[in-house]
Each structure stands twice: as C-alpha cells, then as structure tokens.
Amino acid sequence: MANDDLLERISVDPQVSFGKPTIRGTRIWVGLVLGLLADGMSLEEILADYPQLSEDDVRACLAYGARLTTGHFVDIA
Question: When you count CB atoms within 10 A of the terminal residue's CB, does the N or C end of the chain come out lower?
C-alpha cells in the first residue's frame, strides 16, 4: 500500500480527540502508536493491545510521522 493510501487512514477532526491526528474510525492517537513503537513495543504487541487496529493502521501512523518530518521547521527561542 502506497504512503498516500496509508495516509487516508489518518483523520484530523476538531470534534474527535481534541483535533489530534487519529486512526480513522477510532479515538486512537497517531502519537500514541508512535510512542509505543518508540518505547520498543512490537507490532504484534500493539495489535494485541488494540485489536481494532490493523497492520496498515500502524504503518499509516509511521507514514504520517514520516510526512511531518519532510517540512521545514524553525527553532523558536
């Protein structure tokens, strides 16, 4: 599945989870999934803890994080 197709799984809605990016159809934040991966949790462990997610949902979170890093950022003092 291409990154653009994966990104369709991510939703940003001010009425859901305070506008944080979530996996479409859930209230599971992209940041939560990325944090779990960063903490060393495996894909299998995440899917066991969140059975409503699929492997593509987790990959969508990674694609979303990757897309965010392609922008230009300026440090604010």
Answer: C
Reported residue count of the chain is 77
Q: Quickly tell me which residue has 């009425």 as its tokens.
A: 15
What are the domain boundaries of the chain?
3-65
Topology classification of domain 3-65: Arc Repressor Mutant, subunit A (1.10.10)
* SS3 (DSSP) at 22: strand
Query: Which pTM does this prediction carry?
Result: 0.87
pLDDT in tens, 13-52: 999 999 999 999 999 999 999 999 999 999 999 999 999 9
CA 41 to chain centre: 14
Among candidates 53, 56, 5, 3, which has minimal Cα distance to 29?
53
> Side chain identity at 49, as an amino acid letter?
D
